[in-house]
Amino acid sequence: MREIILKKAEELSFCHVLGDEDSSFNGKFRCGSVQKGTNTIVVETIDRNAQIRSLLLFDIDAMPMLLTGISFTNFKLLKVLDFEDAPLYSVPEDLGNLFHLRYLSMRGTKVKMLPKSIGKLQNLQTLDLKHSPVDVLPVEITKLRKLRHILAYSYQLNPEGLFFTAIRGVHIGEGIGSMLDLQKLCHVEANNGRGLIEELGKLRQLRRLGIVNLMEEDGPSMCASISNMKYLRNLGLQGGLSRLPDWLPVLQNLVRVVLVNSRLSYDPVEVLQALPNLLELHLNNAYGGECFCFIELGFQKLKVLRLRDVKGLKTLKIHEGALPVLEHLVIQPSPQMEVPSGILLLKTLTRIDFFGMPREFACSMRPQDDQNYHIVEHVPNIFFHEFHVDGHTILSLR
User: Is the bond leading into 100 cis (omega within 30 degrees of zero)?
Assistant: First the structure.
């Protein structure tokens, strides 16, 4: 079936797949897919097709040869350019000649710096720099008034590579407030100054926002800017906040909230549980108190709750009527916490993951132990993750 589809695509001059096995190809095509091929024939074939609209690269191991042999000046109709995971270390300055380019991905490449000519890509809508070394966006980026998505971040993982401990974002200079069509902006370094944070308040179309390295004094300005984003669905904040604004539930479109290293002075659940459409909540070193309290009618739509780096947590109070549709609960680590009796009320739970908990904690929930098994008996999947010098071990309750 695949061969039939590819043959038909070539007949219609729609798409052609190029690889090292290609000895020649004289036809025209609008979409090129290069797979494990950067030989001279492949380069010449691409270079001859000035009408090409999209170029996708897979399993390329000689990217410099491909870029050296091709001039972007020849591809003014190109709309999609995807370098994901390619061994690319730099981008030619003539990238700016791709006037019709709408999608540019350098995800997972080795590119450290974008050319200033990127400011000429007036039709660009998506810029994907995830998991690349780019940490500063050129000031020319603010000229791209049609840009909707800036995705530029990488995760710092724990030694076992199981979960992230921090997020690295990019630096953006002032002027970001003029990019009124932006819908996704993640993640941006806040330490460029309060002017940047205040400019974010002009981006009223944002659906996803990620800010890292917030300082406690940035909190009021950050909250004021967020208050203008009525379409916001995904919010990630890393850094000191002190407290969350009481009006946060006004953002009724929020479905996902991630708070990292927030050092809040009070239980954030008090404010967050009133968000009417929240589906996923991650609290990573967000609060150092001894208790999280989930009251009746709180988090009516929440399906995933992750509590990480909660070493001081002793009590998880879950009142009847709270978290009525919760499916997945993650707690890591909380060596002083007792088994939350409120889990018994969470009838929709399908999985619980405990990380770094004392062995006695796990043993108290074994089926042969009458102490706490009745609390978790209804949950089909319960896992205990243990870390040791040799790596990571996962134990199942059953």
Answer: no
Angstrom distance (rounded) from CA 319 to CA 204: 36
Q: Kindly give the pairing relationship between strand 154-157 and strand 103-105.
A: unpaired
pLDDT band at 23 (very low <50, low <70, confident <90, very high): very low
Quick check: bond before 187 cis, omega within 30? yes
Q: How far apart are CA 192 and CA 349, in angstroms?
A: 42
| Straight-line distance from the first to the last Cα atom of the chain, in angstroms, rounded to the nearest whole number | 44
Closest CA to 191 of 136, 129, 236: 136
- For the purposes of burial, counting CB atoms within 10 Å of the CB of 306, is it exposed (0-12), middle (13-18) or buried (19 or more)? middle
Q: Which amino acid is at 60?
A: I
Q: Cα separations (Å) of 377 from 19, 247, 319, 343? A: 55, 38, 18, 10
Q: How many CB atoms lie within 10 A of CB 161?
A: 10
Q: Please report where in the chains the tokens 């309750």 appear, as a residue.
A: 397
One-letter amino acid at 124 equals: L
Closest CA to 185 of 199, 359, 382, 86: 199
For range 6-27, the mean pLDDT: 57
- Strand, coil or helix: what is 302? coil
Q: CA angle at residue 263 from 219 to 273, to 5 degrees? A: 80
**Tokens matching residue 117:** 């000519």
Residue range 283-317, pLDDT digits in tens: 999 998 999 999 999 999 999 999 998 888 999 99
Mean pLDDT within 102-128: 95
Query: Shortest CA distance to 207 belongs to which of 187, 234, 167, 179?
Result: 234
The arithmetic mean of pLDDT across residues 358-368, rounded, is 89
Average pLDDT over residues 228-235: 95
3-state secondary structure of 30: coil
Query: How far apart, in whole angstroms, are the C-alpha atoms of residue 324 and residue 305?
Result: 12
Sign for the CA dihedral angle at 23, 28, 33, 38 comes to positive
